[in-house]
């Protein structure tokens, strides 16, 4: 018997039916399959649904802060992603996987990484790039080597740098404060300004659609943690190591005087770090699953992010850090496969 | 309660309430009784009866076929009608002894009849203990009695108990772990035994401890069976035997797996190439200990076992004491048949059991249950591509990366499979249970293990041949010495 094929065999008219003496006459089919015979209720679609739910607060606060314009960007991304996947699979005569909601998630993640004022054809183009080039051409769900949304964002950043980095002023803030209009907090502190940490965390501020409110991002993150869709390891370590490397680089460069609570809070909350850490760095497909691999990956992301932000010319660095990190994932996993339970460490020869 | 456990694992829904409150009920065989000659690990038994011969209940019908083997006894009286092929639970056709039951239930020794009133009460056990002479309790006599009774690991593995009780260095054994974890959902047979036959269980433990002078006996029970823990704790206290103790374990699957159980109780870790005895442990299932007690006390052979008949398709879920050899169909009838049409019928637990396509198979020493489910959760969901979520890795009690190994097996990359520890897989099914993509990981792992095992055996045979030929064999690349 070929063990690799036909996981569930349906036996017609099988005689495991009712034994004589039983009251009802039963002559339907029973299933035969390899154990286990029970499965957890969670499916890929329920996981994707949870991610969508977790992104709703960030999107809602984006619409609140930047106006209806943000809603159009979000809708454009989601609809284009879903349509691209649908059309591609139809044309290629592949099984339709739109119902697993992964295209919706890609669309939402791309959208929260867009400035609200962008011409709508750009997010549409990015969505097509994400689904068609990064996801489907590599083999579809589970096969992409980079996070599709982030790869598309980087593609747009390179192609349309000014449109992708001109952030509109917030049309509403949660409460009055000295939030800077126009510039993102991260760009502001890079230019030497200081933003009150309380304002930074609790008020809305400029940036990409999803970056408007720190609290909204954290609400989504807590939801994903509570639902056990994600674990804290990669996001937590990524944020910690970013802060650590930012401090370290400033110390090495002799600019330790710029370090302050306001500066570090802005580093964590002012740009794409929180969104990246909780929704993109730990994207299942493109992060390591081995425990040690996750540590190496998160620390690498932190190092790259800190380098890009402090040494690089741009104030942001999360997207590039993550897609570069993505590329090292297969290698990291290969060398960090855990030693099986009960195996003793092999002694080196010689 | 201070509970112990192992790392990783899963928490499937228990469903034990279906049959947990149903006391063990004895079932009588009426039709044919069928005895596969191989119902244990090791060499098949050798038939010592001929067609046409009349046999009594409790009569030996097949002799052990080697050291690692076990004799087989008839649970019924009747006439041997055939010795030939018959289908077993996994659908294979295997050599079997078939006996036409005469319904008289005539026993070789009436004391062995499980129908005897009050055979398992505290007083009956006490009387047996009192009446057992000291010469029946020497290590040789105990091993001999267990061996002669045909007792095998009744938890499901079917390893001959006497072999297990004969480690190279008995004085190096410091733990006798009695496995009452019963971590598989739905199953309640060990639970009922711990409630109803605890006296025999403890007496059996104390006798088996005579084999291992330095050992202490730990009764390991999951904390989803608090009344069993309480009952055993009280009896242990009453016995005043300091070598016995009850160890509550956290309810988690696969807590009853041998390596997980040893890790939880002792902190010691075993891999696939080690036996529990290599780490100073002997692990026995509760029902094996109880069977050993009666074998030592009165020479009673293993003729019956406890089965849980349960699932939402069974009209009255219950725990039955079933003659080995009886057909599953009769066992199900004894439980009242189906209440509704099952989609899936399983023998064993839902995590590691075998799906049946026929009920015309015999109960063997290791048959733990009939589980009939009206829904098949495996068929409800389609398999989707792996999203690399890592949940399998976080569930695997063997600390493997099932996703990586299953993919390697699917691609026939058996060197990768071996390199990353695929042969350590215990097929507990935790990975497939949690997989959100509903991938059939255990199926891939089994395929990988079977193929890789063939390759490893061929390599070892080749190495052995080369050693025998010339003598100068280097410890070749990756070559492990067994």
Summarize the structure.
Chain A is an all-alpha fold.
Give structural notes.
The complex is a heterodimer of chains A (about 350) and B (about 475). In chain A, about 50% of the residues are buried. The longest helix of chain A is centred in the first third of the chain and has 24 residues, at about 70-90. In chain A, helix 1 (about 45-65) packs antiparallel against helix 2 (about 70-90), helix 4 crosses helix 5 (about 150-160) and helix 10 packs parallel to helix 13 (about 290-310). Chain A has helices spanning about 45-65, 70-90, 100-110, 120-135, 150-160, 160-165, 185-190, 195-200, 215-225, 235-255, 260-270, 275-280, 290-310, 320-335; strands spanning about 10, 30-35. By secondary structure, chain A is mostly helical. Chain A contains 14 helices and two strands. The radius of gyration of chain A is 24 Å and the shape is globular. Chain A has a domain at about 230-275 and about 285-335. In chain A, strands 1-2 form a two-stranded antiparallel ribbon. With about 475 residues, chain B is α/β, with parallel strands linked by helices. Among the domains of chain B are: about 305-380, Roll (Ubiquitin-like (UB roll)), CATH 3.10.20; about 390-470, no CATH class. Chain B has 15 helices and 17 strands. Chain B has helices at about 120-130, 140-150, 160-165, 190-195, 200-210, 225-240, 260-265, 285-300, 330-335, 375-380, 390-395, 400-410, 415-420, 430-435, 440-470; strands spanning about 25, 30-35, 45, 55, 60-65, 70-75, 80-85, 95-100, 175-180, 215-220, 245-250, 280-285, 305-310, 320-325, 345, 355, 370-375. A six-stranded mixed sheet of chain B has the order 1-14-13-17-15-16, with helices on both faces. A four-stranded antiparallel sheet of chain B has the order 2-8-7-4, with no helix packed on it. Chain B has a four-stranded parallel sheet with strand order 11-10-9-12, sandwiched between helices. In chain B, helix 1 (about 120-130) runs parallel beside helix 5, helix 2 (about 140-150) packs across helix 8 and helix 12 packs across helix 15. Chain B is globular, with a radius of gyration of 23 Å. Chains A and B meet through strand 1, strand 2 and helix 1 of A and helix 9, strand 15, strand 16, helix 10 and helix 12 of B.
């Amino acid at each position: 018997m070929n063990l690799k094929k036909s996981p569930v065999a349906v036996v017609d008219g099988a005689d495991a039916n009712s034994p004589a003496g039983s009251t009802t006459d039963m002559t339907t089919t029973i299933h035969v399959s390899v154990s286990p015979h029970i499965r957890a209720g969670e499916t890929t679609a329920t996981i994707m649904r949870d991610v969508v739910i977790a992104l709703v607060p960030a999107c809602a606060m984006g619409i609140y802060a930047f106006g209806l314009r943000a809603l159009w960007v979000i809708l454009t991304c989601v609809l284009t992603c879903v349509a691209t996947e649908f059309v591609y699979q139809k044309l290629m005569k592949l099984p339709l996987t739109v119902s697993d909601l992964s295209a919706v998630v890609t669309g939402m993640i791309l959208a929260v990484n867009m400035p609200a004022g962008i011409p709508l054809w750009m997010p549409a183009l990015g969505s097509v790039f994400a689904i068609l080039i990064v996801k489907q051409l590599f083999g579809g769900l589970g096969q992409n080597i980079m996070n599709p949304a982030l790869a598309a964002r980087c593609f747009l950043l390179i192609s349309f740098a000014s449109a992708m980095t001109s952030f509109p002023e917030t049309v509403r803030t949660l409460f009055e404060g000295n939030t800077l209009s126009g510039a993102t907090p991260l760009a502001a502190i890079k230019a030497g300004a200081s933003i009150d940490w309380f304002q930074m965390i609790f008020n809305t501020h400029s940036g990409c659609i999803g970056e408007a409110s720190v609290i909204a991002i954290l609400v989504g993150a807590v939801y994903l943690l509570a639902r056990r869709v994600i674990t804290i390891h990669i996001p937590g370590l990524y944020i910690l190591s970013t802060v650590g490397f930012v401090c370290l680089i400033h110390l090495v460069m002799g600019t330790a005087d710029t370090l302050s609570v306001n500066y570090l809070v802005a580093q964590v909350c002012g740009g794409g770090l929180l969104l990246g850490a909780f929704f993109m760095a730990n994207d299942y497909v493109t992060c390591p699953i081995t425990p040690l691999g996750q540590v190496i990956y998160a620390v690498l992301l932190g190092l790259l992010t800190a380098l890009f932000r402090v040494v690089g010319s741009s104030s942001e660095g999360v997207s590039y850090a993550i897609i570069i990190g993505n590329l090292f994932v297969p290698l990291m996993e290969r060398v960090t496969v855990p030693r099986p339970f009960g195996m003793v460490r092999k002694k080196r020869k010689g | 309660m201070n509970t112990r456990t192992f790392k990783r694992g899963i928490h499937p829904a228990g469903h034990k309430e279906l049959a947990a409150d149903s006391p063990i009920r004895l079932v009588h065989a009426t039709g044919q009784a069928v005895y596969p000659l191989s119902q244990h690990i090791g060499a098949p038994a050798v038939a010592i009866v001929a067609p046409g011969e009349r046999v009594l209940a409790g009569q030996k019908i097949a002799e052990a076929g080697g050291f690692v083997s076990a004799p087989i006894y008839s649970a019924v009286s009747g006439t041997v009608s055939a010795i030939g092929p018959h289908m077993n639970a996994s659908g294979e056709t295997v050599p079997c002894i078939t006996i036409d039951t005469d319904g008289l239930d005539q026993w070789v020794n009436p004391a062995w009849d499980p129908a005897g009133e009050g055979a398992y009460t505290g007083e009956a056990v006490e009387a047996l203990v009192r009446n057992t002479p000291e010469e029946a309790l020497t290590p040789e006599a105990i091993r001999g009695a267990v061996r002669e009774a045909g007792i095998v690991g009744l938890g499901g593995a079917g390893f001959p108990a006497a072999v297990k009780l004969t480690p190279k260095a008995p004085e190096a054994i410091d733990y006798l772990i009695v496995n009452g974890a019963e971590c598989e959902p739905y199953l309640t047979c060990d639970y009922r035994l711990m409630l109803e036959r605890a006296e025999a269980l403890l007496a059996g433990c104390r006798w088996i401890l005579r084999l291992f002078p330095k050992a202490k006996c730990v009764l390991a029970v999951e904390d989803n069976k608090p009344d069993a823990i309480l009952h055993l704790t009280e009896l242990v206290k009453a016995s005043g035997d300091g070598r016995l103790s009850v160890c509550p374990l956290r309810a988690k699957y696969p807590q009853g797996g041998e390596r997980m159980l040893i890790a939880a109780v002792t902190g010691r870790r075993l891999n696939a190439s080690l036996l529990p005895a290599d780490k100073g442990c002997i692990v026995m299932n509760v029902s094996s200990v109880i069977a050993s007690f009666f074998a030592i006390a009165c020479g009673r052979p293993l003729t019956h076992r406890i089965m849980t008949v349960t699932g939402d398709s069974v009209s009255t879920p219950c725990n039955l004491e079933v003659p080995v050899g009886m057909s599953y169909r009769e066992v199900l009838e004894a439980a009242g048949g189906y209440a509704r049409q099952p989609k899936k019928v399983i023998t064993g637990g839902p995590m590691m059991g075998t799906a049946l396509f026929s009920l015309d198979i015999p109960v063997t020493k290791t048959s733990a249950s009939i589980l009939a489910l009206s829904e098949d959760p495996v068929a409800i969901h389609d398999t989707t591509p792996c999203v690399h979520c890592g949940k399998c890795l976080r569930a695997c009690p063997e600390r493997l990366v099932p996703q990586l190994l299953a993919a390697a097996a699917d691609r026939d990359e058996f060197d990768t499979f071996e390199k990353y520890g695929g042969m350590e897989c215990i097929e507990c099914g935790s990975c497939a249970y949690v997989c959100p993509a509903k991938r059939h990981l255990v199926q891939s792992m089994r395929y990988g293990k079977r193929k890789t095992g063939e390759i490893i055996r061929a390599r070892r045979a080749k190495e052995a041949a080369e050693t025998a030929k010339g003598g100068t064999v280097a410890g070749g690349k990756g070559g492990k010495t067994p």
